[in-house]
Design goal:
This protein has 521 residues and is an alpha+beta fold. 34% of the residues lie in helices and 19% in strands. It is globular and about 60 Å long.
Length: 521
């Protein structure tokens, strides 16, 4: 199901098995936090090329009566064996898929923290659906089958890859796949909580897989943090996201700039899309200089979103031509975003990631756990706020949002997509809040995507179906527009749940991914 409307509980995830499991939890008395943990565990089982317990997690949680959501930063830190000096001796850039890029996986600690603060069910109950899928099997989706073919040269030969290639080759779509190794690891977490992952045998295998970049002591010492959200008043609401070390502020900063422009509320008008593109480009170029572990970041979330800082950017935007901005460094990624609203009005916006698809491509022995490469978000520039170092969190691309109106949730919205996440979110936010489309129509509307934001040129891919007048108008304004597929699988999936003043939830999954679903009860 791609859309759902009703006043009861609802969830949207990239896979129908995760959506159904989340709704089932809420149907039987669990809340939205319980639901997203169950969904996350299922997603890591059936879509390990997007997320899993070898990666990090962020969440925004809003309960009735809260003035603003709480933010959980469950991103891990660099290991004690990480050395920027040593890496600089072997190259100018941070590597992409090596042990040095494996930071402590924060996902399991994130589950534990969410449950301790807001949950109602035991971890064993919430992990049971994922464990059952690992033991009994699940059907391989078309997207997963393609992913397994792509990653085969990188992961084959590792113990944890054996279950992914049961006949010695990538399984075709529709094949029943079992992952008993990961199921066993999840059973250990269900029984022992964080100790079932961060101490003992699993931790030892993680340390061994990273050749000592991460040690058992690093894994045991890591903890998530509850922090204040980054927020801004925009589109008649309060928009909330993850503060640094996340790039989430880009969505809200672009929205602040966009709101101050004279924008026609017509998605068939090139001026609308030009304004959205330019509002994003006006801030995207600065990210790599400003986003880092908050202990080292040069600006706070409030400073990043200060309208006085953003006003000169807005004033430079030319309605008739693409503006020139400095050139940033792009960072790719692989992620799962999922959200839930329960019958009592608790809303959770949650995102969890391996970063580059299967992450580093390095598995932790026989655990079924593939370790992320989030440390690739560091750099090797001496003295830079985001310079790689032990105990430090890297720049993160994960950018979930939660929007409130008069203190009540109005929208939970997020996507996968690496550095492109804010691009897709500002497009959806503009279609929802400036144009007035409903979630399903906003999901269907063709998107643009910029793989790299070049300060000297605006280079865009656009999905087929974008109105010809829009494409022509963007080209006239100096954008280099290239045609893309009808629905680009990698340009999402976006998930969203909108809640109106009467409490009706309107949820929509992204048609770009065949397994994505929205459901409720």
């Amino acid at each position: 199901m791609l859309s759902h409307a009703g006043s009861g509980c609802v969830a949207v995830t990239p896979h129908h098995l995760a959506t159904d499991a989340a709704v089932n939890v809420m149907r039987h008395g669990g809340n939205a936090v319980d639901a997203v943990i169950t969904a996350n565990a299922v997603l890591g089982m059936v879509l390990p090329t997007t997320c899993g317990i070898g990666g990090d997690l962020f969440a925004l949680v809003h309960r009735p009566g809260m003035e603003q959501p709480e933010v959980l930063n469950a991103s891990g830190r660099g290991g004690s064996g990480l050395s920027a000096d040593a890496r600089r001796g072997r190259g100018a850039d941070m590597p992409y898929r090596t042990p040095e890029t494996v930071t402590v996986p924060g996902c399991v600690d994130g589950w534990v923290a969410l449950l301790e603060r807001h949950g109602t069910r035991s971890l064993a109950d919430l992990l049971a659906p994922a464990i059952a899928l690992g033991v009994d099997g699940f059907a391989v989706s078309a997207e997963f089958a393609r992913d397994l073919t792509v990653i085969e040269p990188m992961v084959r030969g590792q113990q944890s890859a054996e279950a992914l290639y049961p006949q010695g080759a990538p399984p075709p779509a529709g094949t029943t796949l079992r992952r008993p190794d990961l199921a066993t690891t999840l059973q250990g977490i269900a029984a022992g909580g964080r100790h079932g992952f961060y101490t003992g045998g699993v931790a030892a295998q993680i340390a061994a897989a990273t050749a000592g970049v991460l040690t058992a002591a690093d894994l045991e010492a890591n903890r998530p943090d509850w922090v204040a959200p980054a927020g801004a008043t925009v589109f008649g609401m309060e928009g909330w996201t993850i503060p640094p070390n996340s790039q989430g502020y880009l969505t809200l900063a672009a929205a602040i700039i966009l709101e101050g422009l004279d924008v026609p509320a017509d998605p068939d008008d090139p001026r609308f899309h030009h304004a959205v593109i330019e509002s994003y480009r006006a801030v995207a170029w600065e990210r790599d200089d400003l986003i880092a572990d908050p202990r080292f970041a040069p600006m706070s979330a409030a400073e990043l979103l200060d309208p006085r800082r953003l006003r000169p950017r807005r004033d430079r935007i030319d309605a008739g031509h693409a503006t020139r901005w400095p050139h940033p460094r792009p960072v790719p990624g692989g992620t799962a975003y999922f959200c839930a609203v329960d019958g009592d009005g608790m809303a959770v916006s949650c995102i969890q990631s391996n970063f580059a698809g299967i992450g580093s491509g390095i598995a932790a022995g026989s655990t079924g756990v593939f370790l992320h490469n989030r440390g690739a978000g560091f750099n090797l520039i001496p003295g830079h706020p985001n310079e790689a170092a032990p105990g430090k969190r890297p720049l993160h691309t994960l950018s979930p949002t939660l929007w409130t109106r008069h203190g009540r949730p109005a929208l939970v919205l997020g996507t996968r997509g690496g550095h492109q996440q804010p691009q897709y979110l500002i497009q959806i936010a503009a279609l929802l809040h400036l144009v007035g489309l409903d979630p399903a129509a906003a999901q269907q509307f063709p998107r643009w995507s910029a793989d790299a934001i070049d300060g000297e040129a605006s280079v865009l891919d656009v999905e087929m179906g974008m109105p010809d007048a829009v494409v022509a108008g963007l080209r006239q304004r100096g954008h280099q527009v290239q045609p893309g597929p009808t629905h680009a699988v990698g340009w999402g999936p976006v998930s969203m749940i909108a809640i109106d003043g009467e409490g009706t939830r309107r949820a929509a999954a992204d048609p770009r991914v065949s397994t994505a679903s929205a459901a409720g009860a």
